[in-house]
Amino acid sequence: MGAHEVDRGGEPLAGLAVSARASLVRVIEASGAFDADPRWREAFANVPRHLFVPYYYVGGVGGVSGSGGYERRWGESPDPRTRERWVRGAYEDVPLATRLRDGVLVSSSSQPSLMALMLAELRVEDGSRVLEIGAGTGYNAALLSYRLGDGNVTTVDLDAEITESARRHLADAGYRPTVVTGDGARGVPERAPFDRIIATCTLTSIPRVWLPQCVPGALILAPLATGLIALTVRDAGQAEGRFLHTPAYFVPLRGSPPCGSERAEPEPVALAGVPRRARESELFHFLLALTRDTLEPQEAFALWEREGRPGRERFGITVGVEHAWAWLDEPEGPYAWPLPGSFDTGLVEP
């Protein structure tokens, strides 16, 4: 008997899941995440998230057995109260830690409202072929499959354990997109061409090998520098676009060669001379991440102040045949920086 079928004091957990899922959809709708494409509401209302997180970890719970200080909630617990907390937690609008290794988070189910925003901003059309980088639990691939059909969805992850569990969760929920074990930084050329690529892990640059796997006009949406970059692919050698306004924090992409996104924030001593209002500003830290290895924190602060403390949407990225760079306001404007890492080229100023 599956965990979702176990009774909770005479009431099926499946019934609790239905009501909790409806509540989650209302929360997502109120956040405005569906605004760019309201059709995603139906997918979130019908795809059961709890089937993709048969267990997850909740941090900061003292005295509870777990891994690295995390409490493990699971649907097969003999304690009915734990099973109820598991279901309710699966439908909260929060990210869920799903896989730990030596106390370090290596996989998670992202915050549903952020997932909804990303899917809506992907601007899919009926029949769009989508590549997802980072399979996670399989939940995002299920949402894509609900909207586009199994045959139009491919998801890839480097970790065989992750792809195996994602494939199992997807089958349990009735979806069968293509699940590939491989290096997402290299794409999935055998399944190309794609109309959309969506990454659910943090990058420091856009792998150039993705571009020839896309049709002209394709959209690439990926977390980068604590933001979300939306790139339009012009052809096999060029893509360009701006950041969305929203912040985004994801587990780093693991692949070969390393993406370098695990690098830490600047040490406090490196921020000496930077006023507190900037040190505490999430937008300033976005600029620091985007200009890392190019601007010193003090230089980044001077720019930030001079340009009126710009939000993410004023920044963009251009990926060209030879160079890839980030910029403020205009690709050929006065402010442009090589991306702070690259998968397949050394990057220089435009």
What does it look like?
Helix content is 27%, strand content 23%. It has 350 residues and is of the alpha/beta class. The strands form four sheets. The protein has a ten-stranded mixed sheet, covered by helices on one side. It has a two-stranded antiparallel ribbon with strand order 1-2. Helix 6 (160-173) links the parallel strand 8 (153-157) and strand 9 (178-181). It starts with 6 loop residues before the first strand and ends in a 12-residue tail after the last strand.
Task: State which percent range the strand residues make up.
Answer: 15-25%
Overall average residue pLDDT? 87
Radius of gyration: 21 Å
Q: How are the strands of the biggest sheet laid out side by side?
A: 9-8-7-10-11-12-13-14-15-16
Question: What does the main sheet amount to?
Answer: 10 strands, mixed
- Parts with pLDDT < 50 across at least 5 consecutive residues: 1-10, 61-66, 256-264, 342-350
Quick recap of the structure?
This protein is an alpha/beta fold and 350 residues long. The chain is 27% helix and 23% strand.
